[in-house]
Amino acid sequence: MLRYTLMRLGIFVGCLVAVWGLVYSGLAPRGLGDSNGLWIVLLALLLSAPISFVVLRKERDRASERIVQRVDRVKANLEANRNQEDVADDAARAQGQAQGQTS
Fold first, then answer.
1. Mean per-residue pLDDT for 62-88?
2. What single string gives the DSSP state of each residue in the chain?
3. In the predicted model, is pLDDT for residue 103 greater than 60?
4. Hey, where are the domains in the chain?
5. Quick one: average pLDDT of 42-65?
6. Is the pTM of this model over 0.70?
7. Is residue 87's pLDDT more than 80?
8. Where is the composition biased (Low complexity) (predicted)?
9. Residue 7 CB contacts under 8 Å (≥ 6 apart), including other chains
10. CB contact set of 27 (below 8 Å; sequence gap of 6+)
11. What is the pLDDT of residues 28-52, one digit of tens each?
12. Residue 12, C-beta contacts closer than 8 angstroms, at least 6 positions apart
């Protein structure tokens, strides 16, 4: 997951540098007044999102598989703990009933 995030951040930074260069060279329009920095960031976000979607498809699939595996492992651990609690509870009840019958 960290690898995907870093790759996505790298694409955004690359787009940010490219948009900054285009705006300050005059090839792309400037923002209004003091909003030029925000304009550059928004354009970079707008460009990097579809690029990331296409370029990082395989990495995104790998990351999602790892997440699914982790979730499945956590679910299995929770189920195992739940079963242990059930066994311990059943044993305690059986012992309590056995003591109640002998009294």
1. 85
2. -HHHHHHHHHHHHHHHHHHHHHHHHTSSPPPSTTTHHHHHHHHHHHHHHHHHHHHTHHHHHHHHHHHHHHHHHHHHHHHHHHHHHHHHHHHHHHHHHHHHHH-
3. no
4. 54-90
5. 93
6. no
7. no
8. 93-103
9. 52, 56, 59
10. none
11. 777 766 668 888 999 999 999 999 9
12. 44, 45, 48, 52
What tokens were used for 22? 């285009």
What is the C-alpha separation between 40 and 43, in angstroms, rounded? 5
Closest C-alpha to 51, from 17, 5, 8, 3: 8
User: How far apart are alpha carbons 97 and 23 in whole angstroms?
Assistant: 81
Cα–Cα nearest to 49, from 3, 24, 1, 16: 16
Extract the tokens encoding 72. 């499945």
Contacts of 22 (CB under 8 A, 6+ apart): 28
pLDDT surpassing 90 at residue 82: no
